[in-house]
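Appendix B. Chain record.
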Amino acid sequence: MSHRPPTTLSPSRIESFLSCPLAFRFASLDGLPDPPTEATTKGSLVHRALELFMEAPRGERTPEFLDGCTETAIAEFHDGPELAWLSLDETRLAAFDDDARSLARNYLTMEDPDSIETVGLELRLEAEVGPVTLRGIIDRLERDADGRLVVSDYKTGRTPPPAYQKKSMSGVHFYALLCRERLGEAPASVRLLFVRSREVLSAEPTEQAISFLTTRVTAVHGAIATACERDDFRPKKSALCRSCAYQRWCPEFGGDPARAAEEAPVVYAGVAPR
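Structure tokens predicted for this chain:
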């Protein structure tokens, strides 16, 4: 066996394996560097601005305060490794910052921030699910007007077309499972807030749906264990290949996976592994 099956999984790792087992192996088992992109870095920056904003008590969540939180997040990221890696020139960096400001401001058109009773921000939860520990970070956990839990997740990409919206909700459904297992209470709803398009997707997780996720986690972990035992992590070509950091070592593009462990740390020097 070339690899040991992981003892922990996150919603993003589960989706990574289902999307492309080879990319999953490179990032999650081989620990190869996972370089940031403009999109992922901007997403992290906007998440940070909204986290700072929602830390304030209700009554202080004003547009001016949000602008200040965004500038704080921008300053933090200007001093951080992600933007250093991207090496944006002055024009591109200014456009990056302006777009981040616009995305953060868009949030205020989507809901009244003073109506949100936060329970946790960037809340880390984990639970034993079958043979594996499931871990996740919830952007925002809150209670609605009836006192019920609600999971809210910010997205800075575009709202997916209707055919892909159900799949886009899979991650927050996992958070519903974590809430039930760790907090003893399943959320009444899970939501994705797409701040670029100013749209909200929501679902009400049923007990049947949450229980099915336990089966799904166990099944995916079993498939990963089988792939480890057989050393069989096959690439799966899709639209995601265009932004894959490991394309140069993928057989679908004439690459050699055996060279990745040696070459990736050199190619992506200074980038932390996932």
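Further analysis of this model is presented in Appendix C.
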